[in-house]
């Protein structure tokens, strides 16, 4: 009887030890899972916030670039590219301009008005050449409008340098209005060309795509984690 009772006690103690060891391992496993979930959740939240920030930034960039670059590109009528032959380059007269000399101070200076006449695609029609759309809006008579400065000699040297370069290159690329028959004014360069429009659309699109992919990957990771947890419960 003593041996039987002793064996029963030893068997019960062994099973109790096995249960306690199993419980310890189970508690450790649950604790590790909780630590993993706790560690992953802030990372997932930060990833989602990063994706949302990229999407919002791309939308704002589209709005800003749409108001500036895309609108200016769409409003420009000088869309056709051609070859202009420089016929005449002269400094007609001096034009008054004003510059800031302090918070509440404005002074008057003068810059030379450079006038350049060209022929488009060897048609024989004489047209006036402007630097870009802003120059044409500021002064339709002058090819280039320099930034107004106190020293008149600096602006004069800049205009003379441009005139000499254009005289050296008899044939230059230019842009004209295809709907205008006379082509009174042509541009040397567009303020925002095709390259600027491409970059203004491409990089915000990359940011928008990247932010969307980050959010999709985080949500997919959360879905797969829940699916693995459900499958683990079924097998148990």
Describe the protein's architecture and organization.
There is one protein chain. The chain is α+β, with helices and mostly antiparallel strands and 236 residues long. Among the domains are: 75-191, no CATH class; 194-225. The chain is built from four helices and five strands, in the order αβββααββα. It has a five-stranded mixed β-sheet. A hairpin with a 2-residue loop joins strand 1 (80-102) and strand 2. Helix 1 runs antiparallel to helix 4. The chain is elongated. The model is unreliable at 1-8, 10-14 and 34-39 (pLDDT under 50).
Question: Could you provide a short overview of the structure?
Answer:
The chain is of the alpha+beta class.
Structural class: alpha+beta
Helix content: 55-70%
Strand share of the residues? 15-25%
Number of helices: 4
Would you list the SSEs in sequence order as H and E? Answer: HEEEHHEEH
Largest sheet: 5 strands, mixed
Global mean pLDDT: 78
User: What low-confidence regions span 5 or more consecutive residues with pLDDT below 50?
Assistant: 1-8, 10-14, 34-39
Instruction: List how many beta strands DSSP finds.
Output: 5
Q: Choose one word for the global shape.
A: elongated
